[in-house]
Amino acid sequence: MVRTLLRVPATARSGEVIEIRTLIAHPMETGFRPGADGTVQPRDIIRRFTCRFNNREVFAAELHPAVAANPYLTFTLRVEESGILAFTWEGDNGFSQTETRPIAVA
């Protein structure tokens, strides 16, 4: 399990635009860099990030080897109802990490 940091407001007003910030601690090895012994390190990157709100995709990003380690993503979302935000990072070697956060709309 890797470390994730999420900044999501716990509450919002109906129709409010909220800012969501995500960060995941991941080494993001490009597959082009030689190691100490001179052999190329195998690629190990996060390839896709998705955010779902009440099981509807609201944001997605495709990531490539040029992305830095510990990718930080921020985006906005207009919320109309209470629900659950599900954040999923998918990568090489079968890597998958999902985190959820509730949000209450008044």
Automatic annotation (TrEMBL):
- Could you tell me which residue ranges the Sulphur oxidation protein SoxZ domain spans? 9-100
Against SUPFAM superfamilies, the record matches this protein to: E set domains
> Coiled-coil stretches, from where to where?
none
Q: Which domain of life is it from?
A: Bacteria
Protein name from the UniProt record: Thiosulfate oxidation carrier complex protein SoxZ
Q: Which organism is it from?
A: Paracraurococcus ruber
Gene symbol here is: soxZ
